[in-house]
Amino acid sequence: VEASIPEPLREAWRKHSAAEFTSKDEFEREFVRHIETTLARSLYNCDELAAYSGTALAFRDRLIIEWNRTQQRQTFTDQKRVYYLSLEFLMGRALDNAMLNVGMKDVARDGLADLGFRIEDAISQEHDAALGNGGLGRLAACFLDSMATLNYPAWGYGLRYRYGIFKQEIVNGYQMEIPDYWLDNNPWEFPRHDITVDIQFYGHVRKYQDEDGKVCHSWEAGETVQAVAYDVPIPGYRTKTTNNLRLWSSKASSGEFDFQKFNAGDYESAVADQQTAETISAVLYPNDNLERGKELRLKQQYFWCAASLYDIVRRFKKTNRAWSEFPDQVAIQLNDTHPTLAIVELQRILIDVEGLEWDEAWRIVIGTFGYTNHTVLPEALEKWSVPLMQNLLPRHLQIIYDINLFFLQSVEKRFPNDRDMLSRVSIIEESHPKMVRMAHIAIIGSHKVNGVAELHSDLIKTTIFKDFVEIYGPDRFTNVTNGITPRRWLHQANPALSALIAEKLGGYEFLTDLTLLDKLEAFVDDKKFRQEWAHIKANNKLRLARLIKDVTGYSVNPNSLFDVQVKRIHEYKRQQLNIFGVIHRYLSLKAMTPEERKKVVPRVSIFGGKAAPGYWMAKSIIYLINSVAAVVNKDDEIGDLLKVIFIEDYNVSKAEIICPASDISEHISTAGTEASGTSNMKFVLNGGLIIGTCDGANIEITREIGEQNIFLFGNLAEDVEDLRHRHFYGGFQLDPQLKRVFETIKEGTFGDPSSFNSLISSIEEHGDYYLVSDDFNSYIATHEMVDKEFQNQEEWLAKSITSVARMGFFSMDRVTNEYADSIWNVEPLDIADEA
Length: 835
Ligand code: GL2
Fold this sequence. Notes:
Elements (H helix, E strand, L loop, with lengths): L6 H10 L7 H15 L9 H30 L3 E5 L3 E4 L2 H8 L2 H10 L4 H5 L5 E3 L3 H15 L4 E6 L7 E5 L2 E5 L11 E12 L2 E6 L5 E6 L2 E13 L6 E11 L3 H8 L3 H13 L15 H23 L8 H4 E6 L5 H13 L4 H11 E4 L10 E3 H7 L1 H21 L4 H7 L2 E2 L5 E3 H7 L3 E4 L2 H9 L3 H7 L4 E3 L6 H7 L2 H11 L21 H26 L8 E6 L8 H16 L3 H4 L5 E6 L7 H17 L9 E6 L4 H7 L5 E4 L11 H7 L3 E4 L5 H8 L5 E2 L4 H13 L6 H11 L10 H8 L7 H20 L1 H13 L6 H13 L11
Parallel strand pairs: 1-4, 1-12, 4-11, 12-13, 13-17, 17-18, 19-20, 19-22, 20-21, 22-23, 23-24
Antiparallel strand pairs: 2-3, 5-6, 7-10, 8-9, 10-11, 14-16, 15-16
Helix pairs in contact: 2-3, 2-5, 3-4, 4-20, 7-34, 8-9, 10-12, 12-13, 12-15, 14-15, 23-25, 23-30, 23-32
The structure holds ligand GL2.
C-alpha cells in the first residue's frame, strides 16, 4: 500500500505541520499541554518527575520535527551513509544534552522557574540509559553525538535491552547487583511496530538446483523470532541534523504454530515460547573486556546483525542501484568483533537470496565493512564453538568454512609450505571443540582494521594480528586514536568552566572546533583568570563532596587533594595498586609525629566502578577498598589527612559530576593492557592532572600536553614480557614497601584477612601477572611528587590550564572525521543553504 499522500492533498498537511517552540512562553505552553494531556496530570498533581517528563516531551517534539526532516533530507540527497553497529551504547541522560544541543536550556530554565521548578531537579529525575559496560559503549555514544553534530548521514544500530547494566549497591562492603529496569518513563524512544523483521535460528540447510542448474542453498529455519525497531533521536549540537539510533527488541513471531497451541489449550507453552523469544533482548551482558561464549549471547549477536542488515539492504534496494554500488552507498563499522556475523550475513544475503556469484559478493562485503579492535586481552577475544554455531546458524557456519577455505588457499599460494602460518591464521581453531575465531573473520571481511590509540594499534600489528599484516600488508591496518565529545564532557558536565573559556575565546566555537582551546595558553599568567579557574574547580569539588555525603554518608574536606580512580574494576586496570598505595600512605601517616603531620597535604582517595558479577577478584578489590575506608575514615588521629571513598553505582551521570572535580586521577593499567582509555581525556579536559602509566592514550596525552604536565610512572610495555618471566625464573623480590602493606592486611587491620588471600597470593605466589610489585616503588614515589607539587598551587594551576589548552586533539569530532576519510569514505551532508 502506498503510504505517501498524493501531491494535491499535501497542502493541507503543510498548513498544519508541527512547529517548534521558539520562546519561553511557547515552551511553557508545550510543557503545560504535555502535563495536562499526555501525562493526564495537573497543577495540583505535578511533582519533579512529571516536570522532567513535561520538559522532555516538549523538547522531544522539537527533536522529532528535525529528525523527520533529517531523514527526508538524507533520503533525498541519497549520499553514502554510515552504519555504526554496536552491542553497547552507554548514552547516559538525554534531556540536558538535548536542551544544550538545541540551544534552549536557558529558555527552559526560566520557563520551569515560572511554573515552580528548578531545572536541575527536573534533569536529575532522568534514569541513565545504561546500555553498555564501559569505555567501548561510551565511545559508541560519543560517535553518535559527533556524527550528528558534523552532519554525517549516520545510523546507530543496537539492541533494546530491557535491563541495562545492573545497578551496584554496596552492602557491608560487598557489591550487590540490582536489575536496571530503565524503560519506565522513557520518552526518548519510538516503537516502530510497522518496522519488523523475522529472524531465523536453528533448522537445516537445503541444497537444490535452480532452473539453470546452479547449486543453491536455502536455510530452512527451526525457529523464528521477530525483531521490532525502536528509534531514538540523536540531536547534533547546534545543527539541524538529528540522526537515528535504531534499537531492536525481540518478540515472538505471531506464527500459526503458537495459535495452534493456544487453541489446543496449551496456553502455558504458548506463553513460554513468547518468553523465550523476548529473552533475546532482555539483558545486557555485564562483562567488560571478557567473553564467556554463552549461546544466548550468540543469539543476541545474530538477531541484531540480521535485523540491521535486512534494514540496510532494504533501504539500498529502494534506490534501484546495481549491487556493485553497495559499498559506494553503505559503510558499516563493526564496534569490536561483536557484530562480526554481519559480514557472514551480508555474504549469505548476496549469494543465497540475491543470487550473486561468490566472488562478486565477497568484493562487496569487503568494500562495506570496517572493524575496530578495542583490546588485546586474550580473555576478551571472541571465539564460538563450532558445534554451537552449527546448531544455531547452520548456513552461516558453511559460509564461514567457505570464507576460510578461499582465504587459506590464497595464503598458501603466497606462503607455500608454512603450515604453522595456516593454522595460526585459520578462522577455525583446531581445539576440542573446534572454535570459530571472530576477529579473524572481521579482519578477512573488512577493508580496514583499526586500533584505538597508537601504542594499541602498534601492538595489534606486532602481536595478535602479526600474521595478517604479513598477508595483507600494513595498509589494511590503521590507527584512529579515541576521543570524547566536548559537548557532554565539558559544556554539559562543567558549565562554569565552559563559560569561562567562552568568555576568554569570544564564544563557544571551541565546542565544535576543540583545537581553538590552544588560545587559552595566552592567559596562563593572567591572575584574574587563574583565580576564576581555581574557583570553578573548588565549586566542582564542593558539588562532588555533596554527592559523596549523599551516597556514602562520609563528609570530606573539599580543600583536600581529590584523587580519583573511576572505571570498571579489573585487575589490569590495577585498582589494587591504588588501594595498596592508600594503605602505604595510611601507615606512613600513622608513623609520623604530630609536627610532621602538619606538613601533609590532606587527601581524599575516591574510587568508583562496577565489577562483573562473576569476577571474584574484582569483587575482592571492592571489598578491600571498603574495608580500608571503614578503618581509615574513623581514625581520629588521621582525621582529614586521609579519607577513602567508594562511590557506589558509578555511571555516566555520576561521571559528569566526578570528572570536573578531580585534582588528580589515576590511569594506572599495566603497560600494554589498556587499549586507550577515554576517562583520562575527560579528566584532563576538565582541568585535572593525571597520574598514569605509559599505556593507551596516556602516551598521546603526554605528547600533546607536555611531560611536565603529567605524572608518569612504571615499567614500559616493551619490558612487560621479561618482567613476567622473571617472576617465575629470575630471583624476583617482592617490593619491601608492598610487603609491609601485605603484612598489615594479614595482621587483620582491615578485618578478616582471609577475605584478601587471593588478592595477595596472586602477587606473592602466582607470578604477579599485572606487575603490581614491579611498579609499586615508582608509584609511591610519584605520589610523593604529586603531594609536593600540589603545595605549589600557582604551578599546579599553570599545569591545569596549559593541559586543557592542549587537549584539542582528543575531540571526538577529529576521530569521526578520521574514520570518515580513511575508513568510510563518507562526506557530511551540506545543510548550509537550506531554510
Ligand atoms: C575498551 C578498552 O578497554 C578501552 O581501553 C578503550 O578506551 C575502549 C574504547 O576503545 O574499549 N575495550 C573493551 O572491550 N572495553 C573497553 O572499554 N570494554
